[in-house]
Amino acid sequence: MTFTIGGGDLGAVVVVGDSACQVPFWFSLYVEVYVCVLGPWLCVSFITTKVFKRSVHKDLNSFQDVSGYKQVSHDGGVSMMMIMIFEMLQMIRTNFNFHLNAINKVISSSRAYKGFSDVCNEILDILGKMQRFQELHQVLDEMSNREGLVDEKMFATLLRRFVGAHKVDDAIQLFRRRKEFGLEPGSEAFRTLLMWLCRFKHVEEAETLFHNVMKKGFSADIKTWNVILNGWCVLGNAHEAKRVWRDIVASPCKPDVFTYATFIKALTKKGKLGMALRLFRGMLDKGCKPDVVICNCIIDALCFKKRIPEALEIFRDMSERGCEPNVATYNSLIKYMCKIRRMEKVYELVDEMERRNGSCLPNVVTYCCLLKSLKEPGEVHEVLGRMERNGCSMNDDVYNLVLRLYMKWDDEDGVRKTWEEMERSGWGPDRRSYTIMIHEHFEKGRVKDVVRYFEEMVAKGMVPEPRTEKLISSLNIRVKGRTEKQEDVEEERTGL
């Protein structure tokens, strides 16, 4: 297949094989990018395939249907071109090659078409993902000569790619160049830089930059402080988080709900429940109302420490403070009360969830807690029936849990029905299902069933878990479907 492009700014002639069609300039630009900009990969993967032929012929036919290309809206046509290029770039993100000169030519010669910024953003994002930063800088320098081409979305993409490659200095230098691209270096943009630094674990560099900027007269608000605090909390460094908390309290900024939520969550994760409770009560004393996230965090931590009465007290006070509980609040209480067998209180809470409806309606997590607490097969249908009545659909987690329960109780009829229902619903059986069957049968001494399920699993192309491979090897049985190579690898691994 061959094609040529000819013409000027007002129009072009595209020849595809034996067909010719006059098209507007914007379509010729599309074809130029389609072929030249994306380079060798495109030529191999598209030009030599029917996919590309269909694409080009389809586009040409759409113009031939219009009586004269001048009737096609120029702006609309350009938007269509940008959408096509954008989608094409997304399609080949993982195998991208291009001619740098062609890209720069298109950027420098093209007018500020609608959608062109998105195309440039996609190109820069791909280059950043592939860590081709030298070429990225060249494209970016060309773009800096075009007013209004770089927007906030593109700037955030660049920061993410630089910091993601741990090029912290480059990211900071890029921020200092904002005015070159016609962007103001405001507090929101600065927070974006700090956020990406913290997200990629450069919290120390983010805080140093933050304090340096403050020394130059930058007025920090609580949102900016929250970025630094959250960075240390996500890293799990409670000591540094505590230091930043003290700095916030000493600053003119007052902690907001997000500040409290961030620090309380970090403290409870580290097991510092006493400090988290003092902070929670101090928050109430200062008139700052906790949200449901903070209350859930405290309730879950109290339940984990088996301080159920205190958790229930905070739970009861939530509505009085104007903080309505959600399904996660109830699930924390139900999970731990099931463990201590306070089933009467558990079902009382489930009834309350059903009455409240909305965000409190029981979900899969709730019913899994109830199922795990069951003692005999007859109770399973009651829980699943309740689940169905509340409009909560079964999924692979629930099916595999029920399968495990029936196997534990040695209920063959329940196992068979669950297995068949999984097949009908399309939720399995999956690798977990076979793993459950293999290990439970092994526990009961049924070696033939172990081998049968393992062979069926391998025949379906599922990769056994390491513990399952180890179990099969320990049986010293040659299993159908296991090649000699697999057995040699297993022997090498075990050193036999």
Describe it.
InterPro entries: PPR_rpt, TPR-like_helical_dom_sf. Keywords: Repeat. PPR repeats lie at residues 151-185, 221-255, 256-290, 291-325, 326-360, 395-429, 430-464. This protein is mainly α and 496 residues long. 69% of the residues lie in helices and 3% in strands. The chain contains 27 helices and three strands.
Sequence-ordered SSE layout with sheet pairings:
Elements: E1 3-7, E2 12-16, E3 19-23, H1 25-37, H2 39-47, H3 50-64, H4 74-91, H5 100-109, H6 116-129, H7 133-144, H8 152-164, H9 168-176, H10 187-199, H11 203-215, H12 222-235, H13 238-250, H14 257-269, H15 273-285, H16 292-304, H17 308-320, H18 327-339, H19 343-356, H20 364-372, H21 378-389, H22 396-409, H23 412-425, H24 431-443, H25 447-459, H26 466-475, H27 484-494
Antiparallel strand pairs: 1-2, 2-3
Helix pairs in contact: 1-2, 1-4, 1-5, 4-6, 5-7, 6-8, 8-9, 8-10, 9-10, 10-11, 10-12, 12-13, 12-14, 14-15, 14-16, 15-16, 16-17, 16-18, 17-18, 18-19, 18-20, 20-21, 20-22, 22-23, 22-24, 24-25
Keywords: Repeat
InterPro entries: PPR_rpt, TPR-like_helical_dom_sf
Protein name: Putative pentatricopeptide repeat-containing protein
What descriptors fit this protein?
TPR-like_helical_dom_sf, 496 residues, globular, 3-stranded antiparallel sheet, 27 helices, disordered N terminus, mainly alpha, 3% strand, 3 strands
